[in-house]
Specification:
CATH class of the largest domain: Mainly Beta
Helix content: 10-25%
CATH architecture of the largest domain: 7 Propeller
Distance between the termini: 31 Å
Oligomer: single chain
CATH superfamily of the largest domain: Peptidase/esterase 'gauge' domain
Largest sheet: 4 strands, antiparallel
Shape: globular
Structural class: mainly beta
Length: 408
């Protein structure tokens, strides 16, 4: 019986080793586990994440459709002859806009059913969701206005002669930018009242919201700076002679990129102090934030790579020698797009930081895989017995792929 077990294990080990060399393998840092969600040679782009749930769009050769990953299974949410895009995720709920054959409308997926929220003769676009609340902008026949859906009723928040656009939502609170007839200003809706946060002669744009805190960037007359509204007062976070842009917010933490006179670097504000997270020649941009965790992409040589900072240490996540870009973050889970391969396809990748690792994860990469078997093969005669083999096999079957949140 013991001899049979040994031969079975050796056979399994050799089969796994052969399999490991039959697929393209990319380096990943210790303590992280990567899943390549797509591998179809198509254009899988713009992933967004909420927990273990990921949504992205992909071309089916004719138009773009929406795909959803729930931590285990990939589901194609749309299948029609029109482009579906501009999606946003909250939990297992997804919103997007797509054509109904005449113009673009807003669609909502509640985890089970797709509902068309709008049905008119005007363009509706760029929906955002938080809980049951959804916001978007669409034409009223003259210009773009902001619309708000509370799970039951749609309300038109704005009604003026200027374009209102770029809405973001947190609970019942909404922020957007719109023209006052001179330039673009920032507007804030608290569930009852609309307040104009800015009133100047320069464009203010790109607002983001968390609770009643709002961040945006706008010109001070010389260059673009970062502004922060704490629910009462507007604070100028940056005051320099170079452009700062792309702010994102979580609580009172804010991240953005700005030019340091040489290239773009990543900056972090913790509610009191600004810290420069990067200082290199990598041209770092597109930061995203969750708590004190920040991700961004930057150049290493001629390739774009994804980086993660946990508030103290920066980890380079990708080493693919390709273009890894457009990262998004939830907790310490990260998704991004990789451009490369034989047909220059765009594929979607998902990284999880493992805390803690599975018990049988011998090489500390968050999953039971070939590396653990190799370590076991080198040392089991001295340090392990057959009960360890049982643990390894059990964990590998549960945890290798796809990654299950419950397996550690």
């Amino acid at each position: 019986m013991v001899r049979k077990t040994i031969f079975l294990f050796i056979g399994l080990f050799l089969a796994l080793c052969v399999l490991s060399y039959s697929v393209e393998v990319y380096a990943q840092p210790d303590g992280w586990s990567f899943i390549q969600l797509t591998n179809n040679g198509s254009t899988n782009t713009n992933p967004q994440i909420y927990g273990l749930n990921v949504v992205w769009k992909d071309s089916d050769g004719n138009d773009t459709e929406i795909f959803f990953y729930d931590g285990n299974t990939i589901t194609q949410l749309t299948d029609n002859n029109y482009d579906d895009t501009g999606f946003h995720i909250y939990g297992s709920n997804v919103v997007w806009y797509g054509s109904d054959g005449n113009d673009t409308e807003i669609f909502f997926y509640d985890g089970n059913t797709i509902t068309q929220l709008t049905d008119n003769n005007y363009t509706d676009t760029s929906p955002q969701i938080y809980g049951p609340n959804i916001v978007w902008y669409g034409s009223d026949g003259n210009d773009n206005e902001i619309f708000f859906y509370d799970g039951n009723t749609t309300t038109q928040l704005t009604n003026n002669s200027y374009n209102d656009t770029g809405p973001k939502i947190y609970g019942p609170n909404v922020v957007w930018y719109g023209s006052d007839g001179i330039d673009d200003e920032i507007f804030f809706y608290d569930g009852n009242t609309i307040t104009q946060l800015t009133d100047n002669n320069y464009n203010d744009t790109g607002p983001q919201i968390y609770g009643s805190n709002v961040v945006w960037y706008g010109s001070d007359g010389n260059d673009d700076e970062i502004f922060f509204y704490d629910g009462n007062t507007v604070i100028l976070l940056t005051d320099n002679d170079t452009n700062d842009a792309g702010p994102q917010i979580y609580g009172s933490n804010v991240v953005w990129y700005g030019f340091d006179g040489n290239d773009n670097e990543i900056f972090f504000y913790d509610g009191n102090t600004i810290t420069q997270l990067t200082d290199n020649n990598d041209n770092d941009t597109s930061p995203q934030i969750y708590g004190s965790n920040v991700v961004w992409h930057g150049f290493i040589g001629n390739n774009l790579e994804v980086f993660f900072n946990d508030g103290s240490t920066t980890t380079r996540l990708t080493y693919s020698n390709r273009y890894d870009f457009n990262p998004r973050i939830y907790g310490s889970n990260v998704v991004w797009v990789r451009l490369g391969g034989p047909s220059l396809e765009y594929e979607t990748f998902f990284a999880l930081k493992c805390e803690p690792s599975p018990p049988a994860d011998l090489n500390g990469d968050c999953k039971i895989n070939f590396g653990d078997f190799a370590i076991l093969g080198d040392t089991w005669l001295l340090d392990y017995d057959f009960s360890d083999l049982a643990v390894i096999a059990d964990d590998w079957l549960k945890c290798n792929y796809p990654i299950e949140a419950a397996c550690w």
